[in-house]
Write a structure and sequence with these properties.
2 copies of one chain form a homodimer. Chain A is mainly alpha-helical and 200 residues long. Helices cover 66% and strands 7% of the residues of chain A. In chain A, strands 1-5-2 form a 3-stranded antiparallel beta sheet. In chain A, strands 3-4 form a two-stranded antiparallel ribbon. In chain A, strand 3 and strand 4 form a beta hairpin. In chain A, helix 2 packs across helix 3. Chain A is elongated and about 70 Å long. The first copy, chain A, binds a DNA duplex (28 and 28 nucleotides) through helix 2, helix 3 and strand 4.
Amino acid sequence: VALSNRTKQALLGFLSWRPMSGYELRKVIAASISNFWSESYGQIYPILRQLEREGLAARSSRMTAGGRPRCTYRITGRGRAELSRWLAEPVEPRPKRNELLLKVFFAMHGTPDAAVEAVERFRAEQASHAEHYALIRQKLEAVKQPAADLPYWLLTLDYGEREAAAHLAWCDAALPLLRARGETEAGNASSRRSRRAARR
Amino acid sequence: VALSNRTKQALLGFLSWRPMSGYELRKVIAASISNFWSESYGQIYPILRQLEREGLAARSSRMTAGGRPRCTYRITGRGRAELSRWLAEPVEPRPKRNELLLKVFFAMHGTPDAAVEAVERFRAEQASHAEHYALIRQKLEAVKQPAADLPYWLLTLDYGEREAAAHLAWCDAALPLLRARGETEAGNASSRRSRRAARR
DNA sequence: CGACACATGTAAATGGTTACATGATTTT
DNA sequence: AAAATCATGTAACCATTTACATGTGTCG
């Protein structure tokens, strides 16, 4: 039973553009959807074999383009059917794991600085995402003869932009609170230390 | 080497409140941080053993409260130190996997309806999250004698609220576009069918 | 010719869930 | 007494990454 591995569909999606090798697939994935998806070789190569076994893709010519052996796969009719079938299926929910929020939730048990630094790092990361998205948008919108898929690509980009903006706004609301807490604790630090010392 | 399993720290965090059993931990986690974290028994019980082996928690009394055997764990000094150490450490980035966006990205290769339905389902889910957050906020803010951790809990709640709002706004921007696409395709459907038939 | 990118993979380990097994206690 | 819930766990399986192995072409 296939539980929640969508690598198959992701690969089929890109093979529907044109035949590609595992190496190419990884590069194309990194270049186009790395904002919300990633694949490693350890997944790609075995799954390509599986696609071939299941008749969803066909291994195309061990061509030696320039003398080098190359193993490209092309999508089959059944592969396109599977891609379409998956697109109509509901999204499988995945367990949530947000380490930043876990740290914030338990921030009381660490130094005040720790929480501030965690959120500052997160903020920097999200700001760089936002910048990156702006560049992508420029490039996509500058294309003269846009692909038919372009509106969909822009939607995924819009999603990223909105999330990054929401995250940045959260950071800007959270940081003053976290910093204030750090300062009041710093103010009390000497008295807390003496109390603790007195107990021994 | 511990790569990215934060179950240890999550459990230590809750054990720092009070001693608990594996069963209790799961319930407490589901009740407090399920918005951004989840743990299954298959993780909890083995990790509790591991915490004991490493001296971060101690198995407290196989007490028979009411005749029933119960296995509670309490955090040790070293456990608190580990919790604090982790809080000061940078968040480990995790690979992104957003199946909804993968579907939107490849929506061109499915029926127009498929994409609309996927986003509508996502919208309903996010709306219910938003409602849920509002309830939680009411409850947390109604408490007379707030815990010292409350500000941090509210921050994680705020994060969820902002993300849900951003997601809803994205859905509301995306749905008209997706629906429009569906209608123009429906308008062209007969001509496309005949073209396809003509090729055979 | 040495360094580096191209290219294809595999093995091992980690991370994590699901489904099951087992038995006591409470509720109906 | 039957059913539901409490409670503790384990085994199997799926998902996924990391690190390695291996060889080829290209560029300075």
